[in-house]
């Protein structure tokens, strides 16, 4: 029996890292592993608990076949360790913090992937992005416009994507994620 790949995607600021941190104990109880990504960002950078490597290290790891999935976005390189294939083969579910732009390649490699799109009300997302202080107001406006276009296009092109709203309390989102994993139709 093989496990299931759960591919969590959503715009920057939607709360993917917060959701994964909050859901980690309950997912572990279910035998679901959360993958630690490799990112070309320093380990001290604020955000997820990823393995930070240099671009040279990332390139070497990629050449050695260390990644099951890899992509570049926002000036950074991201890798999902190849060990997920062993976990899936052993029957474990594996949850990946993925990339919306890399979804077609992920579907090609893992045809039975469960895609969960974390959404958030635009006003809440704007507030979160402003609070992070990583981008100017103009850059945030551009990001919000891209996000709206992407979400509409993705749902039109891929009806198998499951929506999960993270505009309210985090515990409600955790419950929604768990319900989604129990019965994929329950995500929306």
Structure in words:
The protein is α/β, with parallel strands linked by helices and about 190 residues long. It is built from seven helices and nine strands; from the N terminus they run βαβββαββαβαβααβα. The strands form two sheets. A five-stranded parallel sheet has the order 2-7-1-8-9, sandwiched between helices. The chain has a four-stranded mixed sheet with strand order 4-3-6-5. The model has no long low-confidence stretch (mean pLDDT about 85). It comes from Pseudomonas izuensis. Catalyzes the phosphorylation of ribose 1,5-bisphosphate to 5-phospho-D-ribosyl alpha-1-diphosphate (PRPP). Its EC number is 2.7.4.23. This is Ribose 1,5-bisphosphate phosphokinase PhnN.
């Amino acid at each position: 029996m093989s496990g299931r790949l759960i591919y969590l995607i959503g715009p920057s600021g939607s709360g993917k890292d917060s959701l994964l941190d909050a859901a980690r104990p309950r997912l572990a109880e279910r035998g679901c592993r959360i993958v630690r990504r490799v990112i070309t960002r320093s380990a001290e950078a604020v955000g997820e608990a990823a393995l930070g490597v240099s671009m040279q290290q990332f390139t070497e790891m990629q050449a050695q076949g260390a990644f099951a999935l890899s992509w570049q976005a926002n000036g950074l390189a991201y890798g999902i360790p190849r060990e997920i294939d062993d976990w899936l083969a052993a029957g474990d579910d594996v949850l990946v913090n993925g990339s919306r732009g890399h979804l077609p390649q992920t579907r090609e490699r893992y045809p039975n992937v469960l895609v969960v799109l974390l959404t958030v009300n635009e006003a809440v997302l704007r507030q979160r992005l402003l609070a992070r202080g990583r981008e100017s107001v103009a850059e945030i406006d551009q990001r919000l416009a891209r996000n709206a276009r992407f979400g509409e296009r993705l749902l039109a092109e891929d009806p198998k994507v499951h929506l999960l709203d993270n505009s309210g309390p985090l515990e409600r989102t955790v419950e929604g994620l768990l319900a989604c994993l129990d019965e994929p139709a329950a995500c929306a």
